[in-house]
Design a protein that fits this description.
Blueprint: H1 2-21, H2 26-29, E1 89-116, H3 125-131, E2 141-172, E3 178-188, E4 191-201, E5 211-213, E6 218-228, H4 229-234, H5 238-246
Parallel strand pairs: 1-5
Antiparallel strand pairs: 1-2, 2-3, 3-4, 4-6
Length: 249
């Protein structure tokens, strides 16, 4: 009975482990069909969304001037039609080219020797020979160690990204800067590409056609990834990833 219980216990423990390793049942539900796209929603409703707080300059109160057409601190004579309020749409233009060529070689060696004894200590050294049969008080402890490490790494990267996507203003900061959040999904066959961009822009950097380049965004976060059959093949299995983390060698 005990062996039968153990035989049933092992599969019972393996099934939850395998399901949790897949991340969720979502991948199993998408077998044989392309991945489902997430519905369009308010980005501020995302559990991971947090209001942004940044250092603000001291408020300046503009004193009214009689018979003046120009208000102090105004950025335009006529009303600016560009995006400036929560809910307005801004197109983010991403154009970046990144390349790197790095080579690193290391070679280290280390040796150590330690010895410790107690030839004389008020006559107590004779007690050691009685307690430990055959022990020599002058050479109680002796250790030696050696370590060698050789490493070689080469990094070559050449990336070019050129994208345009529309985002929504989710917050207007006290100094007038705008928090923009953009999210775009594109499904091609059985592969879903996911692009997310968030950052802070100045109203002056938004062009007349409501576009802003990514290099004008402060605290920019650009994520371009995806999921699907191609990503599954390129991603190591969860068991291999766990072993890569916990294995010391």
């Amino acid at each position: 009975m005990r062996r039968a219980a153990q035989a049933l216990l092992v599969p019972a423990l393996l099934v939850p482990a395998l399901l949790s390793g897949c991340g969720s049942l979502q991948r199993l539900s998408e077998v044989g069909k392309p991945p489902e796209m997430t519905p369009t929603s308010d980005p501020t409703k995302d559990p991971a969304w947090r209001p942004l707080s940044m250092p603000m300059p001291a408020a300046q109160i503009a004193a009214p001037q009689a018979n003046a057409l120009w208000r102090p601190g105004s950025r335009a004579f006529f009303k600016d039609q560009r995006a400036a309020q929560v809910g307005d749409i801004v197109t983010v233009v991403i154009s970046t080219t990144d390349s790197a060529d790095v080579e690193d070689n290391t070679n280290t060696n280390r040796t150590g020797n330690e010895s410790m004894g107690m030839p004389n200590m008020f006559g107590f050294e004779s007690q050691i020979s009685r307690i430990l049969s055959g022990a020599n008080p002058s050479t109680l402890v002796s250790t030696s160690s050696g370590n060698g490490n050789t490493g070689q790494a080469t990094l070559k990267r050449n990336e070019t990204v050129a994208l345009r996507l529309a985002g929504v203003i989710t917050q207007v900061l006290p100094n007038g800067n705008l928090v923009v959040s953009a999210h775009q999904e594109m499904r091609v066959n059985s592969e879903l590409r996911d692009l997310q961009v968030t950052g802070v822009v100045r109203p002056q950097d938004i062009a007349s056609d409501n576009t802003v380049t990514h290099d004008r965004m402060a605290e920019a976060r650009i994520s371009y990834g995806g999921r699907g059959q191609v990503t599954d093949v390129q991603t190591p299995r969860w068991g291999q990833q766990v072993l890569d983390v916990i294995m010391p060698f």
